[in-house]
Amino acid sequence: MVVLSQPALDQIRFVENQKPTFYPVIPAIDLSKPESKTLLVKACEEFGFFKVVNHGIPLEFVDGLEAEAVKFFSLPQHEKEKAGPANPFGSALSDYLSAVKKLACEVLESLAEGLKVEPRNVFSKLLMDEESDSIFRLNHYPPCPELQALGCNLTGFGEHTDPQIISILRSNNTSGLQISLNDGSWVSVPPDHNSFFVIVGDSLQVMTNARFKSVRHRVLANSFKSRVSMIYFGAPALREKIAPLPVIMEKGEESLYKEFTCVAVQILDMRKGLHPQMQWVSYVTQSGRLIQVMMTRIHDTGKVYHFRARRQIAQSLGQVAKFNRRYGLKTEDEPEKK
Ligand SMILES: O=C(O)CCC(=O)C(=O)O
Ligand SMILES: [Fe+2]
């Protein structure tokens, strides 16, 4: 299986200045309610995105790590570099990580029940695998007021889907996250201190034979405030073969995807989107190693229109084509790349 290099739509850095649309009904699912299983399935089918309340994660865990992260990002660059591969966040990180992993597994188990597939750990066992390639990432988007005068919003993190199974996202009280609806429009997701946002990843879309949608999302750095987000990406082991699950497919339903293994797709993901100022993207591997990637500055604003044109083509092809490109499948109607 060939994993193709970045499609052009992942390199967009500017987007037209648009009034932010706040989507009124991002599904908010109360995990303590018995009907949550059905609602989770519905949200994964309709949006691939929702937030969970009554998730059982103590807010001290969240606030503790967020405070550490904000402190870390405010250090001068040479100080950050000194942090090296060790985990600079100590128990704040390990407490948070075990809590969000548990939450991800609970959501996945409820989804399996909602789909009426057995065993109920059919998805969550992939995250529980000792060799699971799950990662944790801290994103920092410094404010950049001077560039807003140009009449463009700046992309903090270019549009993409998450390649893993499920992502559990938190951010400080700064807006910026947007999701794409089925009609291609972008809507802003207001931050919410009491909830966790859940994103369906590509692998879950594949395992459910596209019954669940992995949602396209991006972050606009259009704020005067700094944004810090913390995301746990629940992933299978790299050796794991991902394909539509026969137990999910109806009788006679055709598999839409070829089997693939998760060959370091998260490294491709790291390249999606640049911030005009230095942006630290950090993530912690399962073994607790902190990986830091310094993203570079925008150097060529002349590319803006070029990228816009490409985006329009890419959007008109929609997600099926994107999946085909990502997983090396052939798309019949894809126009020649300009
Ligand atoms: O920073 C955010 O809120 C989202 C970032 C994101 O989508 C990602 O890291 O995959
Ligand atoms: Fe993402």
Automatic annotation (TrEMBL):
GO molecular function: metal ion binding; oxidoreductase activity
Keyword Oxidoreductase: yes
Entries under InterPro entries matching the protein: DIOX_N (IPR026992), IPNS-like_FE2OG_OXY (IPR044861), IPNS-like_sf (IPR027443), Iron_ascorbate_oxido_reductase (IPR050231), Oxoglu/Fe-dep_dioxygenase_dom (IPR005123)
Family annotation (CDD domains): At5g55125 (cd23697)
Domain Fe2OG dioxygenase: 131-236
Lineage: superkingdom: Eukaryota
Keyword Disulfide bond assigned: no
Keywords: Iron, Metal-binding, Oxidoreductase
Family stated for the protein in its record: Belongs to the iron/ascorbate-dependent oxidoreductase family.
Name listed for the protein in its UniProt record: GA2ox1
Species: Liriodendron chinense
Lineage of producing organism: Eukaryota, Viridiplantae, Streptophyta, Embryophyta, Tracheophyta
